[in-house]
Amino acid sequence: MNLLQFWSTIKPLLEIMILWLIFYRILLFFQGTRAFQVLKGITYLAILFLAAQLLEFHTLNWLLRQFFAISILAMVILFQQEIRHGLARLGRGRFFNLFVGESEVLAVIQELSDAVFKLSEKKTGAIIAIERETKLTTYVESGVQVDGLVTAELIQAVFKHESPIHDGGVVICGQRFAAAACLFPLTDNQNLSKIIGTRHRAALGLTEHTDAVVVLVSEETGEMSVACDGKFIPVTGIERLQDILKDLLITHVKERK
User: 102-256, what's its fold?
Assistant: First the structure.
């Protein structure tokens, strides 16, 4: 087999791999945004379009051609904000570094648990959301941008009553303290006790809308708790908090890998 024959053999495979990589990166680009669900719908339509071509359904093929002709422009107009933020991430070099390793997660858990335990001792209220698969970009943008390394000192400083940004929640993305004073949606659960405060309702609300893990400190009692999947997990001490976070976050990292 000469070089020309070899190239003609591997060329289709190479094209498929390149297209798959491009499509995969596009999905990651829009992950966690409104455009992601729309993009998945368009993917199904694209598969239908290919099937219509293979089966020679001329009318369906024509309709899908007209749809795709206007859908690209419509997506640019409707989702210009998501595209702008995605390009900003790409420019910061994080687009190709989306996965955080186990050692980095352990370091974040250590700093976070130290801060939460000390806040609990002082009965200082706190609500801290940790991003997992679903991006928390919308909630980060509702607060004050910080974009610093996660440290126990920084978390404690934010939630001090003297701090101008102690109200609202903190969002942690990977190893980064993304923002403070963020607004989270309140839960729609009508069966909660009337004594449950706004901070806890916001934690449940966020975990109902996303897959985030939220760590809480009650201002009235100093009790620590974790919210995930619309439910509270009681925490009896710092070791228990670390075990819960390891189970929820490190398992998630391994699954993504």
Answer: YojJ-like (1 (3.40.1700)
| Sequence spans of domains, the chain | 3-91, 102-256
Task: Give the Cβ contact number of residue 249 at 10 Å.
Answer: 20
Amino acid at 76: V
Strands, DSSP E only, in the chain?
A: 126-130, 144-149, 169-173, 176-182, 213-217, 224-228, 231-234
State the average pLDDT over residues 83-91.
54
124: helix, coil or strand? coil
CB 183, CB 168: distance < 8 Å = yes
Q: How large is the average pLDDT for residues 231-247?
A: 92
Q: What is the pTM of this model?
A: 0.63
The confidence score (pLDDT) of residue 54 equals 76
Q: Tens digits of per-residue pLDDT, 144-201?
A: 999 899 999 999 999 998 999 998 999 999 889 999 999 999 987 777 777 788 899 9
